[in-house]
């Protein structure tokens, strides 16, 4: 029995080895890489639809700002019929086209705002993709955590089954009482029940992964060496990039509003024709320029809204920067604490396993009662299960640190 217990003892280095991605056998499909998994989730997400809509909106705005006219031309048609002396009448027809003109600098400001909108849409898509990548990563680690639970439950069930068989053999030989066999069988059944629950939880985690990505398998589990150290230089975080792009867009829109202090002036081209019975037709052409006045009633609401948008974007950019700094500091501390806790759990598991082996030897020799051996074995198994969980938790903390840095998995 002591040899059976020793076969399951392992150290912290063994826990760092990656678990199988999906615990599948036979003709299972090859594991996708992280980029493929994120892209698969992105193609199924609402964020992708929103990003496409923002890009189309920016393209439409750029197209409108690139137009030769400030707005759509308008057609004017006027016809007037006049009654003259009895038996005669006249008809006047006037056809015109109104062409809205850009104000000085307005078209360039609108184009700059459209370019800023396109940049903001691209930055928003990158930020949404990073956040979705974090959700994909969390779903994968949830599966790996449940795989660790299944492994621990399987080891526990095997341990208690071996112990139950050994106790049953000794009861038949007359070395132990029937009560010991009942206690050992009860622990064996509890181990089987724990294994069943762990498998169900694993299936649920795998189902959530598939619902998010549409994939049946997981990417390879990243090794701790793949995660940048805490002192690695920061990259431009997509969320910060998005906030900066939105601030630039708000400023460009404010510039466009300041250069659009009146409605677009209109150049009107007209053709006039007059027909009167018994008299020659009268034809003519004309040109008119319509210039709307700038008024506070029109400009103040637009300018105030643009200023408020710029101020809000600036405050949001500052808040995002502060939140990202806080998240990074917290992620660094969590990763360090998780590594230290893993070392502690590994040492605790080693000590309790060594104690369980010694008590098992004493029980085999008839020097210790079964309840004491059961308690020692349970404590050792629980410590090893905690070590497996902490190994996954430490790796997850490292992955979250990578996410806090703005890096894709």
From TrEMBL:
Superkingdom assignment: Bacteria
InterPro entries attached to this UniProt entry: MdtP/NodT-like (IPR010131)
Cross-referenced SUPFAM superfamilies: Outer membrane efflux proteins (OEP)
Residues of the signal peptide: 1-23
Entry keywords, A to Z: Signal
Gene3D superfamilies given in the database record: Outer membrane efflux proteins (OEP)
Protein name: Outer membrane efflux protein
Organism field: Rubrivivax gelatinosus (Rhodocyclus gelatinosus)
């Amino acid at each position: 029995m002591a040899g059976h217990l020793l076969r399951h003892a392992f150290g912290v280095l063994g826990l760092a080895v990656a678990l199988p991605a999906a615990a599948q056998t036979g003709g299972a499909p090859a594991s996708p890489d992280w980029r493929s998994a994120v892209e698969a989730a992105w193609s199924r997400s609402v964020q992708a639809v929103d990003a496409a809509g923002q890009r189309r909106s920016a393209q439409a705005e750029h197209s409108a700002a690139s137009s030769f006219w400030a707005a759509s031309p308008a057609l004017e048609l006027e016809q007037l019929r006049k009654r003259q002396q009895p038996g005669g009448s006249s008809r006047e027809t006037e056809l015109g086209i109104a062409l809205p003109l850009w104000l000085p600098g307005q078209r360039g400001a609108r184009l700059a705002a459209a370019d800023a909108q396109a940049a903001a849409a691209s930055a928003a898509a990158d930020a949404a993709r990073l956040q979705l990548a974090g959700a994909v990563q969390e779903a994968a680690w949830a599966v790996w955590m449940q795989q660790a639970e299944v492994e621990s439950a399987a080891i526990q069930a095997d341990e208690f089954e071996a112990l139950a068989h050994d106790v049953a053999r000794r009861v038949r030989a007359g070395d132990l009482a029937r009560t010991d066999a009942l206690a050992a069988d009860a622990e064996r059944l509890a181990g089987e029940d724990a294994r069943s629950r762990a498998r169900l939880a694993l299936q649920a985690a795998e189902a959530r992964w598939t619902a998010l990505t549409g994939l049946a398998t997981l990417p390879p589990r990243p090794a701790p060496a793949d995660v940048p150290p805490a002192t690695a230089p920061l990259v431009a975080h997509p969320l910060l990039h998005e906030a900066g792009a939105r601030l630039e867009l708000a400023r460009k829109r404010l510039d466009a509003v300041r250069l659009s202090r009146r409605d677009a002036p209109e150049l009107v081209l007209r053709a006039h024709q007059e027909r009167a019975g018994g008299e020659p037709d009268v034809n003519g052409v004309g040109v008119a320029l319509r210039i709307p006045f700038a008024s506070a009633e029109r400009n103040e609401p637009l300018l105030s809204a643009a200023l408020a948008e710029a101020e809000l974007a600036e405050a949001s950019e500052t808040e995002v920067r502060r939140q990202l700094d806080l998240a990074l500091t917290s992620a660094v501390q969590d990763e360090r604490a998780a590594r230290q806790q893993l070392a502690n759990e590994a040492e605790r598991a080693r000590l309790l396993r060594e104690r369980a082996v010694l008590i098992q030897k004493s029980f085999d020799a008839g020097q210790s009662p079964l309840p004491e051996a059961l308690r020692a074995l349970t404590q050792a198994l629980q410590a090893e299960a905690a070590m497996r969980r902490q190994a996954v938790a430490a790796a997850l903390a490292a992955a979250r640190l990578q996410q806090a840095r703005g890096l894709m998995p």
